[in-house]
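Morning - FE2/S2 (inorganic) cluster inputs below, output right after.
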Amino acid sequence: MKETQALIQRVRRANSTHQRLDLSVDSSLLTLKAGQALLYRPDGDTLQPYLRDLWFPVDIDKDTLTIERPISEHYEPGSVIYLTGLIGKPFRFRRTLRNVLLVAHDTAPTPLLMPVNPLIRNQVSVTLLLLGDASAYETDHLPPEVEIIHGDGDFQWPARVTTVGWADQVFITVAPEAEIESFRRIWQLFTELRHDIPPSYLFGVFRPPFPCGVGACDACLVGTGKGAVRVCVEGPALDLTELKLQ
Ligand code: FES
């Protein structure tokens, strides 16, 4: 893992709340897989005290990596930024997979979007469930094959049992400021809606602050049945059946 320079080639609007940045990046970042992330720093000042932002790419095409960011942030085409990666492990998709459920609760679904096109190309059905504040995320730029369902912040949406029972795997992103509490509620909800929750079925995408991003500082520890794990190494997606959420 190293920090490399990236050039912002293009900035375009994705919807009314988000923009997409096409980046020319170091070849070491082009092996990134869905679920892995990058740490972003805007300039060459390595002494600046702020934590680097966690960025989840939404696409890779040849030598261009595409990032999605809120429209409130400002980026200039032609400017250089600094990226460290790769952070974490790819999403652990099952080999035989027919239906995937992606869930965003009170946050944009950006960390979940990178696998959408590859899944559709592999004939996997994709449903995107937008709950609470996530409902404000407009989806016209997503492939038409993606089924979109809206629900409220209290985890209510139409035909919940069908949605949950139909999915072979579920990946969920929540607002980082309420991460553990939200995943706890999701665990309770899924245990109500399904008879059992098998391993490798329900994954939470964790986004705690990552001061180091390489497993060296213990700032991102999360408790599991086998002891604490570092999210920056074992995540960001963790199997909720393995966590201590109580
Ligand atoms: S951010 Fe330092 S161990 Fe994970």
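Note: Helices lie at 116-121, 160-166, 179-193, 231-234.

O.
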